[in-house]
Amino acid sequence: MSIARAVAIVLAKELRLEFRSRELLTTTLVFVLMVIVLFSFSFDPTSEESRKIGPGLLWIAFLFAGSLMLNPSFAREQANDTLYALRLAPVEPFAILLGKILANLAFLLLTELLLLPVFAVLYNVALLPVLGPMVLVLLLGTLGMAVTGTAFSAISAQARMRELLLPLLLLPVLTPVLIASVECTAGLFADPAELRMNWLNVLVAFDVIFLAGSYLLCDTLLEE
Amino acid sequence: MTSSGKTNWAATLGVAVLMGIAGYAALYIAPEERTMHEIQRIFYFHVPSAWTAFTAFFVVFLSNIAYLTRRDLKWDWIGVSAAEVGLAFCTVVLVTGPIWAKPVWGIWWTWDARLTSTFVLWLMYVSYLLLRTLLPDTEKCARISAAFGIFAFLDVPLVYFSIWLWRTQHPQPVIGGGGSLDPTMRWVLLTCWTALLGVMILMMRQRYLLEKMRHDTEELLHAAEDLASKAQERTTR
Fold first, then answer.
1. Taking CB atoms and an 8 Å cutoff, what residues of chain A touch B136?
2. DSSP reduced 3-state for A115
3. Quick check: B18 and B163 in contact, CB under 8 A?
4. What is the DSSP letter of A129?
5. If we measure between CA atoms, which residue out of A137, A149, A146, A129 comes closest to residue A182?
6. Mean pLDDT, to the nearest integer, of A71-85?
């Protein structure tokens, strides 16, 4: 079986599993919405200030969402020991990891795209003129989160206190993604809007390095 | 006294003497800096501690790779020893930094590039050690934490570059960075680094032996339990 086909099968399985219950998506959606509302209480921003802190707030909310949402990716497999079955399949181990990465990317992107308009309304941001580049930034930033998060979910699933452990492992490592995504978003929301290419390059570099790292380490991560 | 005990004593004594020389050189031999005066002398321990921490973290990375390719627990012990010692030196950097910054910059802390990235580095190795305490058996702990250690080290250049791009206000590097450092100052700095590297190796060796002893004790315990259960089986039969 080719890698692409194996990836597609794992991806389809993950999507089917999630869309049967939709529990992960709904919980995360409500969680991020709550964070956005709570932020405005704790900072009480004027409309000028809210445009200034908005990009940071948005990505902090997404980052928290990611560190919660990515946990079940491997933890879910453990309840019925289904990871064992997946590993028995005669496919490249990276296909399993990549399928999960793509599924998590889809879940996170979907959440973000649903929340972006809400955020734009609440924080007075002109979203429509920069929608194209914004989606690109979301895609690259979220890919970094999904790759690292899926790999670390495989790590934390093996440990005790995994729900607490995943954010702890993930957040310091995602520092470059946070800074770069916030800078890109701030550039797009600025007047005049600009796409800060050097920061976009940081995101691309992060994605490439961590995808390569996951490829090299996936045997170790999936081993029992 | 055994011969390994003797070498241990000799090494400890050597490093202690070296530390004494380094301290004396930093306080009395190094010339006074023109603008920062006496407070600048903390530089002779602040900067070498940072270098030593980086050296230790690099050792962690190498032993992580070595463990995953060789699967010999020895490498895991070296890894955890280097991580703990590196974290201790990194803490020294984070503590001496503000002590230096307060009189010179007028503030304890600023979110400048090098401070922030050192802090993030510190956090990453704290989570590395924390992860190890939460993983169950020895083999799994070694394997999983090695994978995380490699990911964390891959992240270090990205963290440094992105935070550097984000802001910079720190005194630019003076060694090998085009800046000029008084030859005596350079000599004292390198002496201090050698001394701290000696301390690092000494501490890592102790920590390694401790980890090995812990492992051996566990093995003995398992062996004893096996014997006990076998003996019980025999009596019930």
1. 158-160
2. helix
3. no
4. G
5. A137
6. 84
Contacts of B163 (CB under 8 A, 6+ apart): A175, A176, A179, B113, B116, B117, B120
Residues of A in contact with B162 (CB under 8 A): 175-176, 179-180, 202
E strands present in A48-199: none
Rounded to whole angstroms, the Cα distance separating A23 from A89 reads: 28
Q: Is residue B120 part of a domain?
A: yes
Q: CB within 8 A of A205, min separation 6: which ones?
A: B158
What single-letter amino acid sits at B102? Answer: K
Cα gap A87→A35, rounded to integer Å: 37
Alpha-carbon distance A170 to nearest alpha carbon in chain B (angstroms) = 9
Please report, as a single letter, which amino acid is at residue A38.
Answer: L
Q: Is A176 on the interface with B (CB under 8 A)?
A: yes
For residue B6, tell me if it sits in a domain.
no
Extract the runs of DSSP E, i.e. beta strands, from B19-63: none
Q: Where are the domains of chain A?
A: 3-222
Indicate which of A153, A158, A198, A211 best probes the interface with B, i.e. most B CBs within 10 Å of its own CB.
Answer: A158
Write the ipTM: 0.90
Residue B176 banded pLDDT, cuts 50, 70, 90: very low
DSSP state string for B95-148? HHHHHHHHHHHSSS----HHHHHHHHHHHHHHHHHHHHHH--SHHHHHHHHHHH
Can you give the residue range of the structural domain that contains B62? Answer: 14-170+178-219
Looking at the structure of chain B, the number of domains it has is 1
* Ramachandran bin of A174, using left for φ above 0, alpha for ψ from -120 to 50, beta for the remaining angles: alpha
3-class secondary structure, B33: strand
Residue of B nearest to A147 (CA): B151
Confidence band, pLDDT 50/70/90 cuts, at residue B177: very low
Of A166-180, B18-32, B76-90, the poorest mean pLDDT is in B18-32
Does any domain span residue B225? no
What is the C-alpha to C-alpha distance for residues B211 and B207, in angstroms, rounded to an integer?
A: 6
**A127 and A116 in contact (C-beta within 8 Å)?**
yes
Distance CA B89, CA A76 (A): 39
Instruction: Specify the residue for token string 């081993």.
Output: A223
Residue A151 and residue B151 in contact, taking contact as beta carbons nearer than 8 Å: yes
Dist CA A214 CA B156 (whole Å): 16
**Residue B232 domain-assigned?**
no
Quick check: A205 and A138 in contact, CB under 8 A? no
- Flag if B120 and A198 touch (Cβ within 8 Å): no
The answer to whether the beta carbons of residues A182 and A56 sit under 8 Å apart is yes
